[in-house]
Structure formats: C-alpha cells, structure tokens
Write a structure and sequence with these properties.
The complex is a heterodimer of chains A (254) and B (251). The longest helix of chain A is centred in the C-terminal third of the chain and has 17 residues. By secondary structure, chain A is an alpha/beta fold. Chain A is 35% helix and 25% strand. Chain A folds into two domains: 154 residues, P-loop containing nucleotide triphosphate hydrolases (Rossmann fold), CATH 3.40.50; 75 residues, no CATH class. In chain A, the strands form two sheets. A six-stranded mixed beta sheet of chain A has the order 6-7-8-3-9-10, with helices on both faces. In chain A, strands 2-1-4-5 form a four-stranded antiparallel beta sheet, with helices on one face. In chain A, helix 4 packs across helix 5 and helix 7 crosses helix 9. Chain A has nine helices and ten strands. Chain B has 251 residues and is mainly α. Chain B has a single domain, classed as MetI-like (MetI-like fold). Chain B contains eleven helices and two strands, in the order E-E-H-H-H-H-H-H-H-H-H-H-H. Chain B has a two-stranded antiparallel ribbon with strand order 1-2. In chain B, strand 1 and strand 2 form a beta hairpin. The longest helix of chain B is centred in the N-terminal third of the chain and has 34 residues. Classes of the chains: A alpha/beta (254), B mainly alpha (251). Chains A and B meet through strand 6 and helix 3 of A and helix 7, helix 8 and helix 11 of B.
Chain lengths: 254, 251
Amino acid sequence: MNSNQNAVSVKNVYKNYGDVEALRDMTLDFPKGQLTSLLGPSGCGKTTLLKIIAGLLPATKGEVYVNNQLVTTPGPDRAFVFQDFALMPWASVIRNVAFGLELRNVNKSEREDIARKYITQVGLSGFENSFPHELSGGMRQRVGLARALSVDSPVLLMDEPFSAVDEQTRRKFQEDLLDLVKNENKTFIFVTHSIEEAVYVSDQIAILLPRPSRVSEIIRPSGFRNKDADSIRKDSEYLDTVEGIWKSLRSYVE
Amino acid sequence: MRIFGIKLPNMTSLILWGLLWELLGQMEVSFFLPPLSSIFSTLLEIYHTKAFIRALVETAQAFLGGITSAVVIGIPVGIFMGKNRFIDELLLPWVNMFMSAPLTALVPVLMVLFGFGLKSIIITTTLFAIWIIILNTRAGVMQINRSLVDMANSFGASPTEAFFKIYFWAALPEIISGIRIGFIRAVKGVIIGQLLISIVGFGSLFELYSSRFLMSHFWAVILVLFALAFTLSELLAMLAKRFDYYASKRG
C-alpha cells in the first residue's frame, strides 16, 4: 500500500517509562477514511500509542506521520475523544462543544453556529445550555464527540470512548459510529478492549500484545462491512472473527 | 432545634443564650458581665461616634488590604505549587510551617520592621490569611482531572490559556473554600494586630474602654466584631455553595 493512502503512519516507535518498556519498535499504518481499532488486553500500550499519535506523549524513539507530515505535538489535523469525556463541568454544553474552536480563536457567534450544528448531529439539540452534570454518561460522550467533530480534523482519535456508558447506549453508539465512518470522510483510530466492538466497527483491527507491546496481527474483516447494522452481529464471518481473535488473545489473559 | 416535637427557627438557641445572659446581668453576678440590653443600648450610643467610625474604617482598610494581598499572591502561588513539582518542594515546608506557626509572636517583629501603623496590620492580616489560601488552591490544582489538561493540550492550548481556562476553574471550589477560611483567619489577624499595636482601629477602642472599665462599651465592640466576622463567613459560604455543584461532579 503506498503512503498516500495512509492518513497516519507510525514508524518504529519506542516508549519507555524509566526501565519499563511500554512500546517496542511499533510500526503501523492507518488507511485514510477508514476505522482502525487498536485491540488488546490491558497493559498492551494501546492508549499510550494513541496518546503518542495525538502528540500528548512524546515517543522515546521513532516517528509519527500524519498526512506525511512528521508530528510531535498536538495539531489541528487530529482531534481526541476521551474515555472519561473530559468535559469542563463549569461550562455549558455549547461552550464545551465550541471549546476547540475557542482555543483556535474562532469568534463567538461563528463557533457557536458550528457547535450548534454538531450538537444537532449527535442528537442533543435542546441541551445547548445544559451543564454536563445534568446529562447522562451517554449524552456526555455525545458532547465529547461533537467537540471533536466541530474542529473538523481529518483524523479522529478515540480512547475507549464507549467504555464508560451502559451496554444499550454502547450498542447505539457503535451503530452511530458506523454511519459516521461512512458519511464523514475521516480517519478513525479507535482504542478498545472489547473484541466484539472492534470487529463490529472496524475496517482494520490491529491486535496488540503486551510486555513489550507489539503488533501481533492485523485483521481486515470485509465480508459484512456493507451489511446493515442489525445483520452484522448475526453474520458468520463476524462471529468467526470474534472467535478467532479470542483464541489468539486468551493465553494473555491472567 | 426541636423541643417537644415542635421545630424551632434556626437562631432560637442564640435567643435562649441571650436571655440567660440578660438574666445573669440583671442579677449583677459580675461586674464584667453587664446585661445584654445595656450592651445594645450602649452600642446604639456609640456606633455613630467619631472614634467608633474611625475604628471601623481603619479596621476595614487593614482587613481589605490584607485579604486582597493574600488572595492576589496566594492563588497564583498555590496554582504554581500544584502544577510544578520543583516550586512545590521549594515552598511547601515553609507554607506548612507558617500555617501552624503562632503568628501572633511575629507581630512585634513586624512592628519593628514596618512601624506602628496600618502597614504592619495589613501585613499581619495577610500572614494570617495567605497560607490556607495557598494550600487549598494547591490541593485544588493537584486533584485536577488529568484528561481535562490533555483535552486542552490536544486542541493546542497555550500554557496561559490552560492556566486561565482550565486550572483556575477546575480548582475554583477549593480556592473559594480556601478564601473563606482565609477571611475568617484574616479577621483574627486584623484584630490581633490592632490589639498588639493598640493605637489604631478597634485596638485603640479596646484599650480605651478596658482601661476605664467601661464594660458595656467593651462588650458592644466585641459583639460588633463577632457579628461582622460571622456575616462575612456566611456570605462566603453561600458563594461557595454556588460552585459546589461541580466540585462533586468532577472526573
């Protein structure tokens, strides 16, 4: 695959915390316009890798390229969705959603117009002036998602975004995410520890193994990607893929 | 408070104690304890006298000066200590030492250094209030949700923007409760400073009244001070409540 088709490339990245080797010689490509999951047992460094791509953590060695540009710090080409939502509790929904634009000095009326559009898109219209503590966990993560979408970055980094919401909400989120990948021309990098979730939403799954972290396998489920949301969970390739991944991971689970 | 299952309004206990005081005063148990009613009538006599108003103004000046510098210096120092390990290790032992030190003992030194006037009292007040403001602000910043900082960084916030848009607001509930305790300590500071220096403000009134054994005057001033301190603290508690909604919902 030539490099123009990759939105993000991770090349020989190492990360050490003191003596502990968190990532060793990690090389991974993330194709443009697709969703790639980083899947693995806890402690395999998937969040560390995501934060290095985001520029929130420096790599000990190695390079990260976003659209063929070397990056070491956060930039407007990437937006982050946090596991614990990271909403400002003192600010209304609309200010939270517009915060990325606020930091980019977009003037107030313009950024609120954009924020309103994305608040509607994630299904929260009417809650613009609510505060985070008045919303449920699922609604809070919708705010986090709207904030990441509103800066219109080509790359969206999602750190276990659905792990803090209840199971029903989580299924709905997964279905919405499929639509999002289809309709927005963005590249998604998605960290999860749920095998089913990874297989359900991903175009490409990178399976990471711990101590030291490395890519053990890359899986590209293809047969059911164009089916509708309901049929995927019953598809035989979906079920086989889930089963196969579990087989290769089970020996790493204590 | 409840008596025989009947709920009584909030300040009822104060009225009961006030009645007891009045009773003991009328019985002339002690020269030092005049009846409450005569204290109040004395208060009505003296509150518009020049000496009293001057004392009030001087005290207010010293208090406001002291608390302002405690807030203006204390909050940034606390935020820097919370953010920066090195600054924290450099300053924390001193802050803790002053926090528990008997500051009253320092007042004579301050008098020698800064003279017998307003300046020494302002500095005393600052010294009483500032340490708890620093410690609370520091605690507020240290408990900040790490991903809020990551969030601001991921959108390219500069250090100044992170300081004003994230750190300050995230620590605000702790800052406000620190300021509240600081205010209460500042009241002590301003009065202790005036008593020791005793030629300004209420210190001079105390000196005047107690040397002439004007007990109801003496008590009247004390009542005013207690009422002022209490009102101030309650007002700040109300303010603190407005920010409590997110103190418990963070993270």
